[in-house]
Amino acid sequence: MGGRSAEAEKQDMAWRLIGAVVGLGVGFVARKAIEYGWRKTTGKEPPADPNSLETSLAEAIGFAVVMGVGMEVTRIVATRTAHKRYQAWKSVARKAEQVV
């Protein structure tokens, strides 16, 4: 009844798993890189708790903007790259199946 094939569902689930693993790994690395960049640029540790009143408003907002933009850009680039690689791999696998 207009449903997707079992093969399409299986490939979709595989991509979701791959995307989740890529997202977690890239997120961890991006956060560490942004924190390192913050330390090198400002000479101070990144705010552990931006909501703390001991952290200035400008510093809290600055860190939030840098972290948010940096994490999202990294996620988009990594996910798109992984998706392209996955599509290329699927194409090669299909061609190999046709040869056999």
Automatic annotation (TrEMBL):
The membrane spanning regions, by residue number, are 13-30
- Listed Pfam families: DUF4235 (PF14019)
Where on the tree of life does the source sit, at the highest rank?
Bacteria
Q: Which UniProt keywords apply?
A: Membrane, Transmembrane, Transmembrane helix
- Designated name of the protein: DUF4235 domain-containing protein
